Amino acid sequence: MTVCGFVAPRGSSNSCSFRSVAVAEDLKVDVVSSITGDFDSNVDLKSGFRVWECSIDLARYVHEHPAPVTKVLELGCGHALPGIAALLDSPNATAYLHDLDPSVLQLITSQNVRRLPASAAKRTRYVTGAWGEGLTRLLKGDAGLFGLILSSEGIYKQTSFEPLLAMLIDLLDPENGVALFAGKKLYFGCGGGTAPFMSFVEDYYSDTLTCRSVALFEDTRSNIREIVEVRKKRQGQ
């Protein structure tokens, strides 16, 4: 059973080395490139340690389409590039950075945030737990509703669609709230991807949610990547 809760940021560590990731021409973010020495070697950091290409896509999109939000949630954040981009572009926003593994939040996410200006770093909270009712209650009790919900690579398997959308319905601001999901069009062998995700929303949530593709990336070197926008339907839509 995964415990839901807030995680204290880890202090600055000399065991981390950093590299710069170019999110856009005018936005570069320092991220942890390696960790040595003082962490539990049994912790699986493979997923959270890697900077996934879809997270760069989403961070760039957020940076190029800034929104005047006050509360941002990134689910399954890892390095948290999209959440950091939203934080830097929204000076009044508080960012809730979530990962299933609290060690990722302490060893990766919080170290990246510490490299930001203090005015941005102090507007972050770290939360852990599996997607579901417990995490929803925790976030809603602390933050209320979110104007922007972000997730990259979180829809790689179909079994994640239902809990993810259930959280979105409870946490997304119904007026102007936007959820952005970045992923590959198809994840072969996993059943997920942006294409089946949009079909799932249309088949099971068309009464309450709208869903559309807002960006497509085809570089001929990898699987087609996409960003999907989800909003709550307003009355009369």
Automatic annotation (TrEMBL):
Superkingdom in the source lineage: Eukaryota
TM annotation in the entry: none
Cellular component, GO, one term: nucleus
Pfam families: Methyltransf_16 (PF10294)
Keyword Transferase set for record: yes
EC number(s) reported in the record: 2.1.1.85
Tagged with keyword tRNA-binding: no
SUPFAM superfamilies noted in UniProt: S-adenosyl-L-methionine-dependent methyltransferases (SSF53335)
Designated name of the protein: protein-histidine N-methyltransferase
Organism from which the protein derives: Perkinsus olseni (Perkinsus atlanticus)
